[in-house]
Amino acid sequence: MSLSETTSGSVSPIPVMREKMTDAEQNPNSMSPGAKPFFTVGLVVVLLVALAVRLVAIGSPLLGNFATKNVVYAMIARNLVEGRASFWLPRVDCLCGSERGLHLLELPLSAYLAGGLWHWLGGSLEVWGRAVSIGFSLAAVWVLYDLTRRRHGNAAALGAAMVLALSPVAVIYGQHFMLEASVVFFAVATIGALDRWLAGRRPAWLAAAVICFGLLVMTKIYMLILLLPIGYLLLAEGLGIRDWGLGVGQAVPDGKSRFPSLIPNPQSLSVRHSLTYGAVLLFILAALPAVAWVVYVMHAAAPGGSLAGQVFYSLRDSAGAHRPPDPLLARPDFYRQVFDDMAGVVFTPVAFMLPLVGLLDRTWRRWAAWLAAMGLLVLIMPRKFFEMNYYWLVVLPPAAILTGLGWARLAERLRPSRMAIAALLALAAAVSFRYTAGPLLLTPEEDRAVLPAAEAVRSLTGPGEPVATMHGSGIDLLYYCDRPGWALAPNEPRLADRLAECGRAGARLLVIVDVAEAESPDRDGRLIEKTPIAQGDGFRVYAMDAPP
Asked: Alpha-carbon distance 410 to 443, whole Å?
């Protein structure tokens, strides 16, 4: 007789025709009559709302909120598809010596995808970059919903999906030309596919998990930290270690424990161990290409390395700037900022307390290692989270599950009507939009002259001709000029020497987009007085002196 087991570890004489039942499937309250269609409709509504808010200003230029980060990936995509860079060596338009500079921080797979779609289908590169992020963002919401539903029920799944769909950081950076949306998707897909494989041992799910993990660490090498929850789930469930607290130790009528036992036949213990260790090895192998690339970059970008003279920014620079332990961890303002972010752009005041409520549900322990890994990431790189709030998007998925558990617990006690749930969704969307409206809709005044200035430069130069640009500390003006060149800072102490260097390298024009009047070099005597050869509202273009 065939035997199948549930996640409770109890054996039932039922033919093996399906995957193991999860905690949620054994909970009669999660599958009450009419519940599944309602929650399916709820997921569709959440996805549609998430899509609608991300489509706002999808055609806007890459200016304003973290514009430099956006245009870096747009430059990389454009240089790849136009044949000026290779897949393994991404390049930006900022010149280092006589070459476009190398950006050796990661392999930006989603940016490459956006560039390919732009190349094959035409249109706007910026729109394709935003569209790819939106696609990854919505896919992550769907996969997280599926993962949470199978383990914790429909109510928790809908709550988790709402958080990942409508968190302000998820909305803003889920439609930017950035990598974070793809990082979230690959991370959630890795855990989701692994969880399905552990439930049924179908090889396709393990293959999907391994592939997603390989793409994840190739995109962001610091996501190697996801090996912690991967190893936790594999060793605890695969080896049947019952005291690791996977969150399934709920009481049942016969008083038995609900810990999982993937293979109830003791004679199959060696098979179970072999499968577990084999899966661990596959995940390690999946990370090797990314690790090999990192080792190569660290060596080639070192002083005296083969690529050192062409590097615009690299992992060596990032590692030097964020070397742990960071003294920021000893400053109270870091923890104040974390609290402000949690209560604002991450959860908003609507959902801020729900993760704490979720801790009352013992099943959260299944994701304890995932939460711990994300907390460790914050401690390893605190300055990134302190200065760049888009990093919170990466740690959001396990926290969203915890929030969903908190919502499910409240819903069980309060039993809100469907109208009340719809009203809550509307409230969450409204509060989220309060935080996202500015970054999505408003172009800062100091950036509004970038597009006309770039158009003037393109009309005065030929393709490939270098130009010198000046627009604060950003490189967005250089991107829209669509020329190689330099992004000079207004407060550059060696401005005259830098301009002379640019002239000797072939630059004929200097374009300045308004910065603070006190810093503008053509207003404080740091440039020889000249008449601009082109100007408009907020920008001026000057002909540079011919080099001696």
From this structure: 40
**Assessment of whether the complete model's pTM goes beyond 0.70:** yes
CA dihedral 394, 397, 403, 407 (to 10 degrees): 140
Ranges of each domain in the chain: 34-59+127-441, 446-543
Task: Indicate whether 268 pLDDT > 80.
Answer: no
* H or E, element range at 102: strand 99-104
Cβ atoms of 483 and 458 within 8 Å: the answer is: yes
Question: Closest Cα to residue 323, out of 388, 385, 381?
Answer: 381
3-state secondary structure of 198: helix
Helices 109-121 and 67-81: angle between axes, nearest 10 degrees: 60
Buried-exposed string 456-465: b where 16+ CB fall within 10 A, e elsewhere: bbbebbeeeb
pLDDT at 337 over 90: yes
- Tell me how far apart the alpha carbons of residues 165 and 260 are, in angstroms, rounded to a whole number: 31
Question: Strand 311-314 to strand 99-104: parallel, antiparallel, or no bridges (unpaired)?
Answer: parallel
Place of tokens 């790189």: 381
Residue 15 pLDDT grade (very low, low, confident, very high; cuts 50, 70, 90)? very low
- Residue identified by tokens 């000249």 is 530
Token couple for 5: 């087991």
| Alpha-carbon distance values, 148 to 152, 277, 441, 499, 527 (Å) | 5, 26, 33, 57, 61
| Among 203, 334, 379, 382, CA closest to 275 | 203
Q: 444 in the Ramachandran plot: left (φ > 0), alpha (ψ -120 to 50) or beta?
A: beta
Using CA atoms, how far residue 545 sits from 290, 459, 527, in Å, is: 46, 20, 11
In our burial notation (b when 16+ CB lie closer than 10 A, e otherwise), range 503-531 reads bebebbbbbbbbbeeeebbbeeebbeeee
Peptide bond into 325 cis (omega under 30): yes
| 528 or 190: which leads in pLDDT | 190
Confidence of residue 525 (pLDDT cuts 50, 70, 90): low
From CA 37, how far away is CA 237, in angstroms rounded?
31
For residue 112, what pLDDT is reported?
98
- Could you tell me the two tokens for 213? 């993990």
Q: Point out which residues pair with 467 in neighbouring strands.
A: 485
Structure tokens at 499: 């301009």
Phi, psi of 100 (to 5 degrees): -60, 140
Residues 6+ apart with CB under 8 A from 90: 76, 79, 80, 102, 103, 104, 107, 108
